[in-house]
């Protein structure tokens, strides 16, 4: 469906032809079609309108630290790609709490649904720590008010985010189960397909970009889990729970770039 949306946007863009009227010595009028020659296109690249390297200064809110590169393909079309690392997602941990979000579907490693998971819940950072993950992104862009990459644009993006966590395993300290055991690895994978509406301003060497976006988010992850098995003398039964979430996603963004 997303491919159809993108193709529709492409087909909806009018192709403008600029006509120049020029009189010769006999006052006759010659109409020619404007076509940017190689020297003009080369000059446009020299003025810094063909390549932009960007960062996202507010990315720490979602735990994303990308380095982005936008390349102009035609006068109205560009492609932006990016890659980077991930850390703690402050925004996601703030809006999601275990037991408060029914859209997160948790599947535990044991068959008995009556057992209580004694490990810390999702997005609880009392004992859980965040490791360094990775991310990548691709975003074709369509500029419809002026020459790319300056002005208003609409884009479709695919973003993949891999977050890593670590939590001490459960251990009995005599008064109950505590997170004092060996480290257990957890992770969360997020896939976003988004439609962006934005504006990019080109200055002497710097660029500023502002966007709003809507789309769909799919989440898959694993979480350390454990419980006291009273059928086995209260011994610890532990493993990894899996979870899924599909939600409507909304975002805003600011990016600062250097063009060359």
Termini separation: 35 Å
Strand order of the largest sheet: 3-4-5-8-9-10-11-12
Tally of individual helices: 3
Instruction: Provide the residue-averaged pLDDT.
Output: 82
Structural class: mainly beta
* Biggest β-sheet description: 8 strands, antiparallel, barrel
Percent strand: over 45%
Tertiary shape: elongated
Q: Helicity range of the residues? A: 10-25%
Care to count the β-strands? 12
Radius of gyration: 26 Å
SSE order, as H and E?
HEEHEEEHEEEEEEE
Ranges where pLDDT stays below 50 over 5 or more residues in a row are: 1-42, 44-48
Task: List its salient traits.
elongated; eight-stranded antiparallel barrel; 12 strands; 260 residues; single chain; disordered N terminus
């Amino acid at each position: 469906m997303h491919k159809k949306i993108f193709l529709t946007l492409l087909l909806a863009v009018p192709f403008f032809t600029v006509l120049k009227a020029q009189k010769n010595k006999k006052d006759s009028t010659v109409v020619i079609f404007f076509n940017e020659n190689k020297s003009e296109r080369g000059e446009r690249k020299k003025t810094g309108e063909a390549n932009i390297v960007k960062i996202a200064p507010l990315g720490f809110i979602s735990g994303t630290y990308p380095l982005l590169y936008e390349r102009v393909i035609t006068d109205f079309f560009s492609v932006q790609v990016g890659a980077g690392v991930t850390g703690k997602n402050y925004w996601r941990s703030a809006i999601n709490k275990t037991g408060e979000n029914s859209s997160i579907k948790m599947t535990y490693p044991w068959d008995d649904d009556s057992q209580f998971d004694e490990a810390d819940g999702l997005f609880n950072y009392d004992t859980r720590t965040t490791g360094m993950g990775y991310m990548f992104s691709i975003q074709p862009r369509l500029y419809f008010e002026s020459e790319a990459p300056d002005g208003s644009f609409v884009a479709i993006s695919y973003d993949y985010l891999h977050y890593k966590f670590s939590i001490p395993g459960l251990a009995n300290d005599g008064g109950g189960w505590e997170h004092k055991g060996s480290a257990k690895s957890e992770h969360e994978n997020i896939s976003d397909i988004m439609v962006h509406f934005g504006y990019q301003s080109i200055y002497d060497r710097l660029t500023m970009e502002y966007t709003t976006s809507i789309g769909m988010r799919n989440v898959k992850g694993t979480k350390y889990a454990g419980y006291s098995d009273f059928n086995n003398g209260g011994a610890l039964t532990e493993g990894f729970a899996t979870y899924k979430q599909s939600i409507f996603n909304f975002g805003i963004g600011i990016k600062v770039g250097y063009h060359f």
